[in-house]
Amino acid sequence: METTVENNKQILKRLIDEAFNKRNLEILEEVLHPEFINHQEVFPLEAKKGPDVFRELYSKFFEIFPDVQAEYHHIIAEVDYVMARDTITGTNNGELMGNPPTGKEVAFEVFHLYRIKDGKLIERWGLTDDLGLMKQLGVINE
């Protein structure tokens, strides 16, 4: 079982390190199941399942925050699940939900839980500190 738990952690680390931080979207098919579903709607996306969900989502993040990076603080795994707590940092140089770029640097937390099937991530549930992000961008006043 320890091997499965460690493998699950490595799958998520690869998604964060390679696909997100290094912008290597070519690996998405290797870590995301063809039936992958993201249960957290961050932006309106055309893709609804499969690796194209994150290909589209990550591409939007890269437009809005060209220098965006994720740093994971905790990765916890079980036999069929893996979760992480990340801090996302970046500079807002692209339009975000109809708001013009601010040029402001931001840092916000994301918690995400993935279910694993056949050695790949098949489902994701997430919580993002959207309120903290909007306050940092000046879209919402305290």
Automatic annotation (TrEMBL):
A biological process (GO) annotation for this entry? polyketide metabolic process
**Stored InterPro entries:** Cyclase_SnoaL-like (IPR009959), NTF2-like_dom_sf (IPR032710)
One Pfam family here: SnoaL
Q: PANTHER family per the record?
A: ESTER CYCLASE, POLYKETIDE CYCLASE SNOAL-LIKE DOMAIN
| Protein name stated in the entry | Ester cyclase
Organism of this sequence: Aquimarina mytili
